Amino acid sequence: MDPVEELLAIDEIHRLKARYFRCLDTKDWDGFGAVFTEDAQLDMSEEAGPDATPVVGRGPIVELVRRVVGDAVSVHHGHMPEIKIESHDTATGIWAMEDQLVWAESDPVRSTHGYGHYHERYRRTPEGWQIARMLLTRLRVDRERRPRA
Amino acid sequence: MDPVEELLAIDEIHRLKARYFRCLDTKDWDGFGAVFTEDAQLDMSEEAGPDATPVVGRGPIVELVRRVVGDAVSVHHGHMPEIKIESHDTATGIWAMEDQLVWAESDPVRSTHGYGHYHERYRRTPEGWQIARMLLTRLRVDRERRPRA
Amino acid sequence: MDPVEELLAIDEIHRLKARYFRCLDTKDWDGFGAVFTEDAQLDMSEEAGPDATPVVGRGPIVELVRRVVGDAVSVHHGHMPEIKIESHDTATGIWAMEDQLVWAESDPVRSTHGYGHYHERYRRTPEGWQIARMLLTRLRVDRERRPRA
Q1: Structural domains present in chain A
Q2: Beta bridge mates, B124
Q3: Interior CA angle at C121 toward C75 and B20, to 5°?
Q4: What digits encode the pLDDT tens for the residues C71-81?
Q5: Residues of C with CB below 8 A from A139's CB?
Q6: Average pLDDT for residues C5-10, to the nearest whole number?
Q7: According to DSSP H, which parts of chain A are helical?
Q8: Residue B52 contacts A, CB cutoff 8 Å
Q9: Is the whole-model pTM more than 0.80?
């Protein structure tokens, strides 16, 4: 790609990931789904071990995320992107991240505060750049339990 | 606009908002004022209800912000911009944000920690891109009160 | 420089600083060293007073940083860059930052949470843009001491 096309692609991927965060925290699940390719993969090896099967498909990914954080007040922020355009239609990216969640009253954990990095693959589709694969590695996660009644 | 002009405009608006945050937290009130258009509007509907009148004008905006946070140790960070260039001289933007304030000793609240999104309009003036309208919506605000003496 | 070259330089400096943060927090000390020029200067005036001598050279900077935070779980995030390209091969930048460190068990301080700004100079070398000088000023640092045994 020529340099201007590359800069435009990087800018669009930055805004794609911004929609990922904004839709996640405002619980806009249609908008959240639209950031993923139809066949996107959510790599679960960090949460569930190296042999874990990825979650495959926009629908199942949205369903999983919605089930986990849909009732929480969540704040997810991304920082310091490192986007590499690999071809006209493929790219990779790393983002530092921080997330803070306050869970529903029924949860024994009151809040979670985590830090880590997203490792992602992107693909340009007729709808623009979308996330094709996502893995979240963690530097640290702090959990605050509720006092027992 | 051609793509390069659009990328330059986005870059300038990113740096404009960086000055907003840096001048606010270092209490550089002249620099802070310079990020707004002379006729800028601060939408207060989130703080004061849907019928609240906006604060109008660079001077009144700086005066209000300075009165509220001038004596606090403040940290405001912006994240994940979504800038849309609408014409040669107008643009909109959304920014995720987090703010942490430690209030003066005389305040019954010791500290505030908030999260939300700025929704903004920008206008290109002879001094460059400036903020023409600003609304801050909140995901969550935590307040820590001082222990009673 | 023409506008496209300037945008490419700004983008590369953004990714340079992203590597600084990622390598620091994942303890990739070779990668961390590679973000600095061979003759880089770490300005210590904020930590050690206005007459403090800077730490000079990639090796000594890495050694110092590694000694201080190598055993801590660290999270460093950069925000809101203000990069100014000064010539084909030199630039300056300001970044807002936040750092959170959990220290080794032997340390009487359990954790540190700080906020401030990096003030930097960059130089383009045969290896690309690198950090040539760095100063970190602080808005605030909170320390949590361990309870006495």
Answers
A1: 3-145 (3.10.450.50)
A2: B129
A3: 65
A4: 999 999 999 99
A5: 25-26, 73-75
A6: 98
A7: 3-25, 29-33, 45-48, 58-69
A8: no
A9: yes
